[in-house]
Specification:
With 76 residues, this protein is mainly α. It has one domain. It has four helices and no strands.
């Protein structure tokens, strides 16, 4: 999980790592790897995590607050 979060933070420096991202990744990581004994499918986990974060990150970046994608825009 650490590598997935590290790579995500490097690819999206504006977002970086935000507290709680590990809690978003944990269920994805568990479900993807639940049936595998010794193999961890990190690419699949990263792909799913990236898709989830694409929707969530707009709500958590201050620069997007006042835009239609931000929290204030979605409330209106």
């Amino acid at each position: 999980m650490t590598r997935i979060l590290f790579i995500y933070a490097k690819l999206y420096p504006k977002a970086g790592y935000v507290q709680g991202m590990n809690e978003v990744l944990a269920p994805i990581f568990y479900l993807v790897n639940a049936r595998k004994k010794n193999m961890i499918d990190e690419p699949a986990c990263f792909f799913m995590f990236n898709n989830v974060m694409t929707d969530l990150i707009e709500l958590n970046i201050e620069a997007f607050d006042r835009k239609e994608n931000g929290i204030h825009g979605r409330i209106q």
